[in-house]
Design brief:
The protein is mainly α and about 180 residues long. The chain has one domain: Alpha-Beta Barrel (TIM Barrel). Helices cover about 35% and strands about 10% of the residues. The protein contains six helices and four strands; from the N terminus they run H-E-H-H-E-H-E-H-E-H. The termini are far apart.
Length: about 180
């Protein structure tokens, strides 16, 4: 339902996809997800098709039975596989990655930085030149956050930068930067 409105106002947009889920649904003739043919058509119209992981695995929880190193290796291989499958099916490889569930741990965040991915998290917020490109905020726009008045507010929001002085600055949150 969004496409005609986005097209009418010439708004650019990105669709983040899980290639493993798309492949499985195409194999089972399931039609509740976009197909590679539909995504290629959107890609040809200028829509950005980007990476949301091969499946939809959490990037904040290590799979039971795996060490942190094994888990990181598995997830980064799947992330690169997803990027390759997207390129194969749409011709696009932007190296944009939306963390599934918007969650991540510092190891995967550091990996995205070291491998030149721009990674999107789920905390709401505007972006500016100081935004950490391994944790770019994104506003939800699906139900129950799909009202046009709310979207207008989101599109017109500005980044709010806080500068903390000294190591002992007290905050209500703790921000960890990815180490490269």
């Amino acid at each position: 339902q969004a496409k005609p409105i986005l097209d009418k106002f010439a708004f650019p947009y990105t669709i983040f996809v899980n290639p493993g889920i798309i492949n499985r649904n195409e194999k089972n003739n399931a039609s509740h997800y976009l197909s590679w043919i539909q995504l290629k058509a959107l890609s040809d119209e200028g829509v950005i098709i980007a990476n949301h992981g091969y499946e939809h695995d959490s990037m904040a929880r290590i799979t039971e039975g795996l060490t942190q190193t094994q888990w990181l290796k598995k997830q980064t291989e799947l992330l690169l596989k997803a990027e390759a499958v997207i390129k194969e099916n749409t011709g696009q490889s932007w190296r944009y990655y939306a963390y599934p569930y918007g969650e991540y741990d510092v190891a995967i965040q550091a990996w995205t930085k070291a491998n030149d991915f721009v990674a999107f998290s789920q905390q709401s917020g505007a972006i500016d030149l100081s935004t950490d490109l391994t944790s770019v905020p994104r506003f939800p726009a699906s139900k129950p956050y799909d009202k046009i008045s709310g979207l207008r507010d989101k599109l017109n929001s500005l980044a709010f930068n806080i500068r903390l002085e000294g190591e002992q600055a007290e905050t209500i949150f703790k921000h960890k930067e990815a180490k490269s």
